Here is the input.
Amino acid sequence: MGAKSEVSVTWAQALAWRLRRHLLDPVGAASVAEVVGRLGAVLSMDESLADLAVRTRCPAAPPDALADALTSGDVIKAFAFRGAVHYLSPADGGIYLALRAAGRQWERRSWAEHYRLAPADWPDFRAAVRAALSDGPRTVAELGRELSKHRAYRHLGPVFDDGAGTLIKPLCWQGDVSIGPPRDGRLTLQRLDTNPRWPGIPDLDEAGPAAVLAYFRTYGPAPIENLHYWLGNGLSAGGKRLDAWIDRLGDRLVAVDVEGTTAHIAREDADALQKTAPSEEVRFLPGHDQWVMGPGTKDPHVTPPQLRDLMTRKANPVVAGGVVRGTWTRKGDEITVSRPDERHRQWPAIERETGRLAAVLGRDLHAIPAA
Here is the structure.
């Protein structure tokens, strides 16, 4: 998009707007499902981090609220960005799965030879998986044993005994299964179409522009390269497709000049963006929070280069005014805060955020500066 910028703001304004869209300043009263839907996806690699990512944005939510939302079907869990498991909104998660499925991995020759499933076999295999889950969730091993009753899939028994992660992923992408509540610490799979909130996988031509617009509404104003990182690198959405979807949105997107960087935002948000005042709020976020992962750790406006390695390694960021300024760790009731930039000037804000985190976690906490 080479159009002249219609809006001009500072990075401080841009990040303050994004903090509002992330439900971080002000922190609202959204539900768990609304938080997941707003963020697009919440990484579930570490459940304690996923829980905190959601609860810090809806502090009234009780412990285990995210797990309860999964059980009720208010959120779903599926292999999505970068092949990892994420919490998604059942209403909107299908747009991301549609993008990931567009690569049609199961049609590759190497795939067919490895699993001995030709592309023509795939529809029947999907149907067999859904049938095997008709009575409720099963563990991966249980699903494998059920499928092994079919002569055509008997050879897949060892694959399921080993976890079948790669084989299961496209079943998620095509909307056949999602990850259910764990049973005795073991992953379970369940049918997606039994969730009344699940609308199905939309057509790619519908999903693509919707995913692009959703990104700019939550992570904007953002440069085009951030979008390519999130949907391109994250979901293997091809660059040409992404650019075509951007073009299809036309004037629904607005070019924004952010201190010399061309970024974009949804037109419906442009006026509010211009009126947004910079934020001075400090937030303690969990490692791999969407605040950092959405734009990517390479974005220096959110993650300064000297802190990138820490963010990549899942350190907990201290965010001030939308910028990662340091890290925090908790041991018992003690929060140790490392802030290489203006640590002492911000200490009253750090103490306020410690109190807020204490309320979220339901325990007394106190902060100390790192030695």
Notes: Residues 282-369 form one domain. The longest strand covers residues 323-331. The CA atoms of residues 317 and 327 lie 4 Å apart.
